[in-house]
Amino acid sequence: MPRMFDILRGKSGDDSPEDKKESGSCAKFPDVNKKEEIAAPKSHPLSFPKNMLLLDVKKEKSSEDHSIVSKKLISAVKQHGVDDQDKAREIYESAVEIIKVLLSKMRAGDKVSEYMDKLHELLDDVFNQLVMGDNLLRSVYEEKKEEYHLPYHIVNILILSSVLGLNMGFNKSRLSHLGLASIFCDLGMDSLEELVKQPKMLIKEERETVKTHISRSLEIVNSIGVLNEIVKETIATHHERASGNGYPRGIGSEDINPYAKVLGLVDTYEAMTHTRVYREKMSANKAVRALIGPLKNDFDTDVVKVFINKMSVYPIGSIVRLDTGEMARVTSVRPGSPLRPVVMIFRGPSGEKISENNIIDLSRQDFPNIKE
């Protein structure tokens, strides 16, 4: 099982006091043209609060948290309406268009800093929609084979990382850091489009060139001049792995910042579950099993646990076959029931189309079961 599917082919102004503690000196990356220097720049990672990951964050939540979330939910409903699929799709498609414009501005040499307000609006729209429900996740699994995959990849990892951050207890400021890192982490891939679109396994030299997308992304970020060191460090380390088998520094779990742990996981998962010109996609179910199987040493255990608890072994939007022979789409996941999601049956045992909404919450009954 390959570790990184797209590689191994052959300030935000509302920082909380804790977030301000997170700032520090970011690693300086070498010029992308000096290939021999890319492998392991020497630097020290930023110092992050020890309570950022799941278990400790939950302990520090106060009794006011529920009130804050309720107020945010009410505000989001007033602004966006209820969590329906049409609204979720509208936000998703708008997000993709915003990223396409960002890429075109970047290619034209325009000042990306003048587009930051639009990106912050995008972060707010995604956050508000996710506070209301999970419908936005359904669009993550749709294929756009005829189109350039990078804008969709960026929006997908933005959504997935935001979902994971919300479920890890990240506050709005931390979600903003994570969201901006999600948007900018792979922008450097755009200049490598012709290389990554080749329908073949890459040779070693080509794989090394693909790795320079991190340095290229950081060049873009540095040219903007408004993103803080936390975002930069997250971009710099999102391909590092807990096992020490990542790049560019080859650092281990203790030296990878919490945002990069989240981003590294969802970046890998998103790539696995989408088709590329050189390989077919993996089913969401198989991708999740890979994360707890062959890839389990690459990612932080607590982050993986939250991801599976939220996404389930059968993520929202994925297609399953029940042992009754019926086909169904996963529409929701109950916390604590990763093996028994809520599904909507759309084909009968003989393959006949079912038009009415036949929704079953498998977590509340023993039958039927998911067969595949």
Written description of the protein model:
- By secondary structure, the chain is α+β, with helices and mostly antiparallel strands.
- The protein folds into two domains: 49-311, Orthogonal Bundle (Hypothetical protein af1432), CATH 1.10.3210; 319-364.
- The chain has 14 helices and four strands.
- The protein has a four-stranded antiparallel sheet, with no helix packed on it.
- The longest helix is centred in the first third of the chain and has 24 residues, at 85-108.
Strand content of the residues, in percent? Answer: 5-15%
- Provide the domain count: 2
CATH level 1 class label of the largest domain:
Mainly Alpha
DSSP summary: helix tally: 14
**Order of strands in the sheet with the most strands?**
1-2-3-4
Apparent shape: globular
CATH superfamily of the largest domain: Hypothetical protein af1432
The beta-strand count equals 4
What's the Cα radius of gyration? 20 Å
CATH topology of the largest domain: Hypothetical protein af1432
Q: Mean pLDDT, as a whole number?
A: 79
Distance between the termini: 20 Å
Q: How does the major sheet shape up?
A: 4 strands, antiparallel
Question: Secondary-structure element order, as H and E?
Answer: HHHHHHHHHHHHHHEEEE
Extract low-pLDDT stretches: 1-47, 54-64
What key phrases describe this protein's structure?
Hypothetical protein af1432; 4 strands; 372 residues; four-stranded antiparallel beta sheet; disordered N terminus; globular; alpha+beta; 14 helices
